Automatic annotation (TrEMBL):
Superkingdom of this protein's organism: Eukaryota
Positions of substrate binding: G332, N469
Active site per UniProt: C81 (for gatase activity), H189 (for gatase activity), E191 (for gatase activity), D245, D404
Lineage per the UniProt record: Eukaryota, Fungi, Dikarya, Ascomycota, Pezizomycotina
Protein name according to UniProt: Imidazole glycerol phosphate synthase hisHF
Catalytic activity from the UniProt record: L-glutamine + H2O = L-glutamate + NH4(+); 5-[(5-phospho-1-deoxy-D-ribulos-1-ylimino)methylamino]-1-(5-phospho-beta-D-ribosyl)imidazole-4-carboxamide + L-glutamine = D-erythro-1-(imidazol-4-yl)glycerol 3-phosphate + 5-amino-1-(5-phospho-beta-D-ribosyl)imidazole-4-carboxamide + L-glutamate + H(+)
Keywords from the UniProt entry: Amino-acid biosynthesis, Glutamine amidotransferase, Histidine biosynthesis, Hydrolase, Lyase, Multifunctional enzyme
InterPro entries for the chain: Aldolase_TIM, Class_I_gatase-like, GATASE, His_biosynth, HisF, IGPS_HisA/HisF, IGPS_HisHF, Imidazole-glycPsynth_HisH
Pathway assignment: Amino-acid biosynthesis; L-histidine biosynthesis; L-histidine from 5-phospho-alpha-D-ribose 1-diphosphate: step 5/9
Pfam families registered for this protein in UniProt: GATase, His_biosynth
Species, as recorded: Apodospora peruviana
An example Gene Ontology molecular-function term: lyase activity
Region (PRFAR binding): 364-365, 402-404, 474-475, 500-501, 523-524
Length: 552
């Protein structure tokens, strides 16, 4: 097998990149010291986390001159995500830290006054001057996850010889990919962008992308460098996510199950755990139906020590070999003690999951307890929570907080200290107000903390996204809880995935049109075969909502 070298300079969730490269028929060899860079013919710089952290790791380990020498020698080089950002001069994310300065310019943060940041999801990478740049296609979508970007100004980079592909998010047009000579860099993650992303990796690895670019270099743009900003049409798609609740059944097999308001046992007298299928097979099926992400929740993790939970790791390993969209794993991400008495940190558990192919971890119960401490300590951040530690090591985008709220009705707005809403669906005694109480241990224990408090606390701690379930709606097929979603969206800036209650494609349309949710998740309706992910996406597409279609 031909080889490609990958720079191993910082802990990262690069398993999916390795899988994608192997899928393209190449073997990965790790570069673990600056001296080894000289062995590389094709080199990839995967970027994870924070600009300053990435650059300081590269420079303190002595990689910068070795990288420059590789690039100056004209050997193929590819940067991904922060690996693209590292090529620029600097970033507002860490102004003290210099980039490699191969592309002049400074990155800035997306404006979050009217949209969620990070920018997470499937968007364009279009290059009008080179429409087939590294096999990028105008009709394809690519998976992005980042808070900082290089704002695109027509002609500025082109006039320096760079071919530039762009995307637009909430009116801000930014660089999605740049290429020049032997260099390709993508802000999106090609390894998580399905078949469209694999095409880009292949065009880099087999040299066809660089060859085509040499025949068709970018043209000088008259007036380049002016302040003219380029607005292209909004490309971010509506994300549709499939969720698999996984647990051991009474026979000891790990199965996909699904509850009604979190009760996953059959209503029949034997009350056995509902078995809806095998996790790896079902994840692959949803990927092929066009799911934009797949989430696994290990729903009984609070009973066992997760460190011993090898089957979940195996599920991730197997799934990530064939599913090239982001994978999230939740359940049991917290500091714990192994069966032999060894202490294992949440960060170590998350690392095991990342190494097995997860792109994000989802934290449930532990986030609630951390938020309570945050308020008890007068909103102080000590840096020791699972959220803070994992987001520091892997970036905010890698940490999702899964919220399991329950409605609590009250007769008056000020009947509780909690953030109430006036509801259109009064309570059993006609109560017109309600608040949403957070729970832990899969809804078994209700805490004196509301969803606004929880989501604001975890946002401050560095969570990158909220998975917003709703126990009252779970498994009811009656649609999402729009009131809950609206309340949470108003409280925070990070993206929200709405979950619980989806029963038909119309419910997805409703949640996207009536709230500002960033993504919507379904479980039971897909597992029971009532609708496919593809049917949901077709339905949304027919009604003018932008969706990504699966490319086979
Ligand atoms: O607390 O960090 O160990 O994480 C445990 C995780 O397991 C949490 O994310 C929690 O939401 C989840 N969980 C625990 N118990 C259950 C249960 O069902 N008994 N499942 C559970 C949560 C909710 C969604 C479901 C949607 C959509 N499941 O995942 O997929 O409600 O369902 P629908 O479309 O069929 O309505 P920790």
């Amino acid at each position: 097998m031909p080889k490609v070298h990958l720079l191993d300079y910082v802990a990262g969730n690069v398993r999916s990149l390795v899988n994608a490269i192997e899928k393209c028929g190449y073997e990965v060899e790790w570069v673990r010291s600056p001296e080894e860079v000289a062995n590389a013919e094709k080199l990839i710089l995967p970027g994870v986390g924070h600009f300053g952290h990435c650059l300081s790791q590269l420079s303190s380990a002595g990689y910068v001159p070795a990288l420059r020498a590789h690039i100056d020698a004209g050997k193929p080089f590819m940067g991904i995500c922060v690996g693209l950002q590292a090529l620029f001069s600097s970033s507002a994310e860490d102004p003290q830290c210099s980039g490699l300065d191969l592309v002049p310019g400074t990155l800035d943060r997306f404006d979050d006054s009217s949209k969620s940041v990070p920018h997470i999801g499937w968007n364009n990478a279009s290059c009008p001057t080179n429409p087939t740049l590294y096999d990028l296609r105008p009709s394809s979508k690519y998976y992005y996850v980042h808070s900082y970007k290089y704002t695109y100004k027509k002609g500025v980079l082109e006039n320096l010889g760079w071919a530039v592909a762009t995307a637009t998010y909430g009116g801000e047009t930014f660089v999605g990919a740049v290429a020049k000579g032997n260099i390709l860099a993508t802000q999106f993650h090609p390894e998580k962008s399905g078949v469209a992303g694999l095409r880009v990796i292949r065009a880099f690895l087999d040299g066809s992308g660089a060859k085509a670019l040499a025949f068709n270099p970018p043209q000088i743009v008259n007036g380049g460098g002016s302040d003219e900003l380029v607005a292209s049409s909004e490309g971010l798609t509506r994300r549709v996510i499939a969720c698999l609740d996984v647990r051991t059944n009474d026979q000891g097999d790990l199965v996909v199950t699904k509850g009604d308001q979190y009760d996953v046992r059959e209503k029949s007298s034997d009350r056995s755990v509902r078995n809806l299928g095998k996790p790896v097979e079902m994840a692959k099926r949803y990927y092929e139906q066009g799911a934009d992400e797949v989430t696994f929740l290990n729903i009984t993790s609070f009973r066992d020590c997760p460190v011993a939970d090898l089957p979940m790791l195996e599920i991730l390993r197997k799934t990530s070999e064939t599913v090239f969209v982001p994978l999230t794993i939740g359940g049991g991400i917290r500091d714990t003690v192994d069966v032999d008495g060894t202490k294992v940190s949440a960060l170590e558990i998350a690392t095991m999951y990342f190494k097995s192919g997860a792109d994000k971890v989802s934290i449930g119960s532990d986030a609630v307890l951390a938020a309570e401490e945050y308020y008890n300590g007068g909103k102080t951040l000590f840096g020791n929570t699972a959220i803070e530690q994992i987001s520091k090591a892997y970036g905010n985008q890698a940490v999702v907080v899964s919220v399991d709220p329950k409605r609590v009705y009250v007769p008056k707005q000020d009947a509780t200290r909690h953030a109430t809403i006036k509801t259109q669906f009064p309570g059993p005694k006609g109560e017109e107000y309600c608040w949403y109480a957070c729970t832990i241990k899969g809804g078994r224990e209700t805490r004196d903390l509301d969803v606004v408090e929880l989501t604001q606390a975890v946002e401050a701690m560095g969570a990158g996204e909220i998975l917003l379930n709703c126990i009252d709606k779970d498994g009811t097929n009656s649609g999402f809880d729009l009131e809950l979603i609206t309340q949470v969206k108003e409280a925070i800036r990070i993206p929200v995935i709405s979950s619980s209650g989806a029963g038909n494609p119309g419910h997805f349309q409703e949640v996207f049109e009536k709230t500002t949710t960033d993504a919507a998740l379904g479980a039971g309706m897909f597992h029971r075969g009532e609708y496919t992910v593809q049917q949901v996406k077709d339905y949304l597409g027919e009604r003018g909502l932008v969706v990504r279609q699966f490319e086979g």
